[in-house]
Each structure stands twice: as structure tokens, then as C-alpha cells.
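Q: I have two molecules that I believe assemble together. Could you output C-alpha cells for the complex as a whole instead of separate predictions?
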Amino acid sequence: MLDKINRQVHLLSRPQAMPALSNFEIRTTSVPSLKENEILVHSLYLSIDPYMRGRMAGRPFSHPPFELNACLIGKVIGTIVASNNIRFKKGELVRGRLDWADYSIVTDDQIEKITPYEDITLPTWLGVLGSPGMTAYFGILELGQPKAGETVVVTSAAGAVGSIVGQIAKIKGCKVIGITGSDTKVEYLTQQLHFDMALNYKKPNFAEDLKHCCDKGIDIYFDNVGGTITDLAMLHLNKFSRIVLCGQISTYNSEGPDVGLRHFRTLILKSATVKGLVVWDFKDRFEEAKIQLIQWMREGRLQSRENIIEGLDNAPKAFIDLFNGENIGKQLVKIS
Amino acid sequence: MLDKINRQVHLLSRPQAMPALSNFEIRTTSVPSLKENEILVHSLYLSIDPYMRGRMAGRPFSHPPFELNACLIGKVIGTIVASNNIRFKKGELVRGRLDWADYSIVTDDQIEKITPYEDITLPTWLGVLGSPGMTAYFGILELGQPKAGETVVVTSAAGAVGSIVGQIAKIKGCKVIGITGSDTKVEYLTQQLHFDMALNYKKPNFAEDLKHCCDKGIDIYFDNVGGTITDLAMLHLNKFSRIVLCGQISTYNSEGPDVGLRHFRTLILKSATVKGLVVWDFKDRFEEAKIQLIQWMREGRLQSRENIIEGLDNAPKAFIDLFNGENIGKQLVKIS
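A: Yes, here they are, computed for all two components at once.
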């Protein structure tokens, strides 16, 4: 029963600066027999996440480094195809930190069951109802503490987290400005997600445009990028503003430390607060967030958007594209 | 009655890098007659504060820039020698933002009365019971939120604010490590103020010493200096640590922006919080702080220390010495 062919995405070498296809290899193995308590999961969707860049580099960043010549591990949704575990049954839908592969063998502490709803698509469980949704929810609400009428600036605004952050801030009555990397995404943010404004940071007049948009200053800066965009935003902070540090994607491909403006004098002047966001700090409240996010989706106030690429073989390319700014919404790979 | 000679400290030119005596001049004027509601104050002590460097440079920093060829303004304690104001009487002790001069003419919104206590010296009203004390009190207690057993690192630890911060953290049961710039001050901190440890950042093995002292990591980093010392401290932050940004004296004499390590990735990794401290945000609670600080002084748990230089003529030198790390405790000038 278990003589299935299993394709796995292995890390061959640690990326130098931008990751390249040559850092990865698809290797084919067979699936071994299940031992006591083990469960065999067939992958349906892989979540492609920027934080994995740190693990590939060998830098410790929330998680330990990936091993070379071993299968990569990420968030995956799949179905159970065989189980020696009393708690999990064949056919059940699960989510967990699994292999980037057709099949993963896991124990019951690595997965959680998902109870599907008719009106919620499967990819949503890796997007609005997955880590990006939890990150956005607790980041903007708990760390950001938005008040109606305040100005919220969010970077990587068309990305998995940013697009949800902006929509929640709109629900809370804020003026929302999205910063993104293409005119297509600017249009998506303003036309589809109803952000008040959106700016393409690649435009030569971006600094001026940002100043113009933030004529009342910035109350919450939700930072997914770091670097020079963040330096510019710091110029417009209001008194008692909050900076939510979620990601620093502009620096993930740097080999050295991030050198640039230290913003500390500005932070003092503005009585500002900077808060580092680790979504797992809120894991006891994920269920509460899920219920609220589903309600907002059902009310039509929160849109889920995934960018789905077909085929496990394309997982390395999908990962590299994260850093090219190619994706709108959550980047996923659908396993054929 | 008002034909007194009044020496004033004027700003002649904006300092380039380190301030120099040539930036200042003592000018002598006469005291004009008091108009309606005006009050004449004779200065007793001037408070010499690092933040004034920003105002001299013409940089906006909490307060507008000082004008050239005009008298400098700072915190002063004095006695009223004449008054056309019904609320203030000759002989009363007052504190306010007054001229660096023998005499200031003020209105009643510029000064507050001080009710002296027998066991509290006058200089204490510009130290533990003045802005440094308020800054230390709200900075460590409200922004730092210290818990017993936590490790607190404070910079400029022998300075006006740092020495009070460390003593309050000790009262709250923390392990306190002071960073300072001379072996004399290291001894002062450990022997006189009973800090657990103190380090001289000018020693070649400072980075190693800091690592050794912070073997359990840093829970609160109280930052008066910024720059490379802060960069080093960031390496030792604990999960959920708090960085209180009070001053950045290492950068006040820089003409350009502060360039160096951006610490944002570390802050995310550690779910850390950085909070900019403006003491005036807490002005409604100054009375509460005063009562507590007096109680701690009377219990012998909090020492007040001022470095007093005699003579208005020496005010420019006293200011320059702030950046040479010459002072222990609050730097004051006593008017002869």
C-alpha cells in the first residue's frame, strides 16, 4: 500500500543574496512503511513564506536553520491517506509544518485537523485563516491598537499579510495607505480592497507622494519590508505612533547586518513605540481570531486572495518570486 | 530698584560637532523695569542638560531651536526679588525654564513655586525631584515595567537620569548593570549606588564583559546613549524585552543622521518593544512621582547626587563637559 513515489524539494546549497533555482533540487524517494502512531499525509497546498529565507541561509530566526541535502519544511494542507494513530483517520483534512513533498510521514503533534466550511476554500486555510491572517489580525489589532480616523501605512500591502492588515484597518475606520511594488498592485489595493490610497515605491516621486498622502502624519506603520522605505516612513510619524515590526523582506537576501538610519532620535521625539511581532505569542487566541475573520469574510468586508502556482516542481520558483514582488496575496503551490 | 547688572550666557554660533567655548559669550545688560504681571527671578542654580545641544544646532527636538545672539534658556531654580504679579511674592522659591543669566523677567505661566523641605537640598529640585528624576521614574516604571529578578542595563549610568534609573530598578528587585565611561564611575555605581555590576565601555574587552554580565540576557535596556553601545546591547535582548529610549547622547554632536545597525530583525525575533520617552507626556503625574521619590530618599534607598560648578561664567564649560563624560550625577551651575 505504501510503495508510492514521493517527490521532495531539497535544499542543495545556501542561497547567496537572491535565492536561485540551483539552490534547490527535486528528488524522488519512496514512502517507507508507517511505524506505530505515524500518519501519512498527502500534500494538497504548500505555503510559500519569506521567513524561510532565513532558515535557508543558516541564520537562526524563530526557527532553526534548514539542513542541506534534506527536504524543506513549511506550512502544508493535506489529506490523510493512511494512519496508525488513533486520533487521526484516513480522509481527514489536516494542516501542519510538513515536508515540501507529495507525502509526509508525521506524528500527531505535528498536525491539526481542519473542519472545512462550504463557503471557505481550502487555500484560505493557509491565507486569511492561516499564519498570514493570524499575523495580520494580532499585529494590527493588538500591537497597532488602531483607532477610527487614524492613518495606517502598510508595506508589502498586496502581499499575504499586508492585504489583510489594510482590510482590517479599514474595518476599524482608519485611513489606509498601502505601499507596494507595481501599478497593477496599486490598482488592486484601491479598486479591489478599497484602500484609501496606494503607492508604488518604485516610482521616482515616491518620497514626495508618501509625504502628500501622509499630510496628517502616520499613526500606525505596519512594517513588512524594512530598509529605505521604512526610513522614509519614519519622517512622517505622529506623536504616540506605533510601528509594528512584522517582516523585513528588503533585508532577507543581505548577507551582512542591516546598516542604515537608526531611527531612535525620531522615536524619542514622537513618543513612538516599536513592537516586534511573533504571531506564535498569540497562539492561545488563534481560535478567537479565526471566528472573527470568518465573520468578516462572510459579511463581504474581508477578501481572501491567493496566488496559486501548480505543481510541486514549481515550488522553488514560487519561493524566488516572493522576492521579485510577483505575487498578489498569499503565495501557494498546488500539488498536482 | 531694578538697575541691577545682569550677566547672560548668549549663543554666538551653532556648534559644529563638539560644542566649543567660542560658541558662547557672557554679555552684560541691565534689568529693565517690570511691566504689569511680570516677575523678576534671581537665579540660584542652572540645570545643564544634553538635550540643549539639539536646540543649539538648530535641529527641532521637542523644543524649537535657540536663537543666535540671544540668551540661552534652561531649567533654573531661583528666588523672586520683585513681583508685579498677585500670585507670586518676593522671597518665594521658584523653578522654571528661565534665562541662563543672573536675572530673568518672567510671567506666571513660566514658573512654579517650590515648597522647600528641611531635609531636601535645593539642587535636588533640579535632580531627583526635577526633570531627571521624573524621566527616570516614568521611564523605568511605566515604559520599562520592571519585574523582580529581571536584568536591567542602563547607559550613562552615573549621569543624572541613569543613576536614578538604576537605583529605582534595584528597589524593584532587578539585577542592575550600569554602563559608564570611567573606572571612577564604575566604582561609584557599585560601591555608592549598589548596582550589581558596572562596566567601563572604554575598556578594550567591553563587548566580552557585557556578554559575561548579561549571561541571562537583558530584559530592560534603558538607553541614554545610542550608537555602538546600543548595537552591542541588542545582541543580548531577551524575549519580550523592553528598550526605553531616553537619550542618544553619542549622536548629539553628529551633523548628519545616525547611521549604523538597524535593529529591526532582532526586535522581531525577540518580540521586543522600543518606547520613546518624553517625560512631559507624564506631567499630570509628576506630583505622585515626587512623593514616592522623596519617600525613597528618606528611607535611604535613593541617593541624590549633583555635580555643582560655581559661577555663571562657567556654564558653557559645564555644558561642554557633559559630552566629555566628566560629570557624576546631575550637572548644575551655582550662581555666585
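A: One point stands out. The mean pLDDT of chain B is 94.
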